[in-house]
Structures are given as C-alpha cells and as structure tokens.
Amino acid sequence: VAEHALDRDCTTLSRHVLQQLQSYSPEAQDLSAIMNRISLAAKLISRRLTRAGLVEGALGFTGEVNVQGESVKKMDIYANDVFISVFKQSGLVCRLASEEMEETYYIPENCPLGRYTLLYDPIDGSSNVDINLNVGSIFSIRQQQGNDVDGEAKDLLQSGHQQLAAGYVLYGPSTVLVYSIGRGVHAFTLDPSLGEFILSHEKIRIPEHGPIYSVNEGNFWQWEESIRNYIRYVHRHEGYTARYGGALVGDIHRILMQGGVFLYPGTVKKPEGKLRLLYESAPLAFLMAQAGGRASTGKQEILDVVPDKIHARTPLFIGSQEDVALVESFIQERVEEM
Ligand code: P6P
Predict the structure, then answer these.
(1) For 68, 103, 212, 312, which has the most beta carbons within 10 A of its beta carbon?
(2) Is Membrane given among the entry's keywords (predicted)?
C-alpha cells in the first residue's frame, strides 16, 4: 500500500529540531527557526531546478566570473539570492558568507538581535544543472562572537568546532535535506504535494568501512606520489569500486549512506586543493563526525583547521573511519609501497 506522509505521524524539520534539543530555550527556538528558513530556501531552489529547462533564465551562464574564477551560472545567482531573501526576513541571521560573494553580506536590520551567521554554498556542482544531474546546497551556522565592528567578520576565522549546525540539501530524484545540530545526523525528504520536508532517515550512521572510493582520477598525475600509491592499492585489492559524480553533495551523500571515502587531494601546483573550508569541508566534516565517520586534510582533522581567510581551500579526505585512516597511512607513508 502506498504510504503517504499524511498517513503517518510525519515529523517536520522545525519540530524535529525542538525534539532534538528537548528544550524551548531561546537558542533552541532560534535554531528551529533557522532550519525552517533553510528548508524554505531549499523548497524554492528545488522548485526552480525541477523546471530549469522550462523557465526562461534558469539554464546557462550569466557571462560573469565569480570570486572562485568560475563562470557564474544563472542558477548560482538565483540560489544565492534565495538564501539572502529568506534570511533577511528571518531576523535571526545578520551575516551571510557565501561561495558566490567575495565579501561577507550584512543584514543590518538583523544585526543587533540576530547573532547568527550563515555560511553556505548555494548551489554546489552547478555545471550539472544544464545536464539534469544532481546538485546540492551546503550550509553551516555559527554564532557571531564579538561585534565585528570593522566588518571583517574575523570571528569566522575559527575552527569547525564553532559550528552550531550544519547540513546539505541534495537536489536529486527527490530533494533530501540532511542536517545535524550536534545530536546525530537526520535526513528529511521533500514531499512536494505537502510542500514539507518529512523525516525519512533518523540517526544516520556511516559504516566503519565501505567499498567506495570517490575521486577524480583525471588528476592522477597532478597528485603527490603517496595519493597515487593509495589509488594503486585500491586498484589492486578486491572489494573496492569507484563512484564519482563530480558534484560534491551527491558524492558525499553516497559515502554517508553506503560507506567508503571521498577524496579531493591537493595537487603539486595547488597543495591546498579545490574545495573550500568554511562552507564546504567544515560543514561536511561536522556531519560526518556526527554520523561516526571522519574528515581529514591528510595531516589533521578538518574540524581543527583554523582558516586565514573566508574563502580558504583545503584538501579533503572524508568518510568511513577505516577508509580515511587508510588514505592517511599512505599520505604519512606508513604503508610500504605495494
Ligand atoms: P573536479 C563542483 O565544481 C565542485 O566544486 C564540487 O561540487 C565537486 O566535488 C568538485 O568541484 C569537482 O571538481 O575537479 O573533479 O571537476
């Protein structure tokens, strides 16, 4: 019998947050309201993505180049603006740090009261939009510390342990929102007929080991030799399989659900790698740790890294405990060459 969300006691996201915190403290209320705004942004983006091929101005490029030096897709701008507008109305968040904006964006009317900062990648993997493959949004919530009088948002240059909440939205065959406020990892599936995210996976735990390694092997000859040795190891040993979608959120969700490891190593030319720390690797590391996994730069825990600038990059090795440890053993040359 087809089970419909209304047929069971469906738990919405904002209610789940309050259940998680088992309290109605001001901070609990704030986090619940913030997660509600995130879910509104996700619904608006999901709706536009499902009609991208039909709506004028949703596909293709704007002709501009963003702070990352990447050509800006129309969807990047739309999604970035959606987050700004839903949080402007929220009253809670006074600063937004986005992959799409060089400078931190201030919402002055929220600043005296709203002591939270949203760090986000509004649409990650946007090159997939034009070919109807999955894309994602990644978000992280921090408390503002101090008064940021110089507008430099220096208090954001702290380790990932400062995160109050983090998660992502995977716009795939269904739209799934995965989040944690430090009490486990939980997933909600959007029921478009209700316009609600309904709890679909509670207390997600990543397996200690998994068969998947996820990396762009096209960069093989740009890596350090130790990474090539890890790849040679998984090529030679039974039980490994390669899966790489080229869009971070989908690749990470597969690892979270099935186990294994996602790698975005630095190269000889760019040792810091491609992925950003504050609004990509740190929120994903927060989630993975909450699910019993790990995230490393190869030399230290991602959550311990203190960035020197908002758009700092970092190498990323993330997933099952055993698989991340194996990669690290090659990086630290603790494994004789096979
Ligand atoms: P490469 C997409 O452009 C992105 O930022 C992430 O979503 C993805 O994991 C990575 O870059 C893919 O990079 O070098 O493999 O194409």
Answers:
(1) 212
(2) no
Q: Around Cβ 76, how many Cβ atoms within 10 Å?
A: 25
- Return the half-sphere exposure (C-beta side, CA atoms, 13 A cut-off) of residue 246: 9
Q: Is the pLDDT of residue 224 over 60?
A: yes
Q: How far is Cα of residue 148 from the mean position of the Cα atoms in its chain? A: 25
Q: Which residues line ligand 1 (CB under 6 A)?
A: 124-125, 216, 246-248, 274
Instruction: Kindly give the number of the ligand 1 atom that is closest to the alpha carbon of 275.
Output: 5
> Is residue 155 annotated as involved in ligand binding?
no
Which residue among 223, 249, 264, 276 has the greatest number of ligand 1 atoms within 8 angstroms of its CB, and so is best to mutate?
264
Nearest Cα to 41, choosing from 212, 180, 168, 182? 168
Instruction: Judge whether 46 is annotated as a binding position.
Output: no
CA of 185 to the centre of ligand 1 (A): 24
CA distances from 162 to 142, 181, 233, 290, 318 (A): 6, 12, 36, 14, 19
Q: Residue 265: which of 221, 297, 299 has the closest Cα?
A: 297
Q: For 255-310, how does the pLDDT look when each residue is reduced to its tens digit (9 = 90+)? A: 999 999 999 999 989 999 999 999 999 999 999 999 999 999 999 999 999 999 99
Closest-CA residue to 114 (of 88, 142, 93):
93
Q: Which atom of ligand 1 is nearest to the CA of 70?
A: 3
Sole residue written with tokens 């603006």: 81
Distance 22 CA to ligand 1 centre (A): 38
Separation of alpha carbons 118 and 99, rounded Å: 12
* pTM, entire model: 0.94
Would you state the pLDDT for residue 1? 44
- Cα 98 to its chain centre, rounded Å, is 12
Mean of pLDDT over the chain: 92
Cβ atoms of residues 324 and 294 within 8 Å: yes
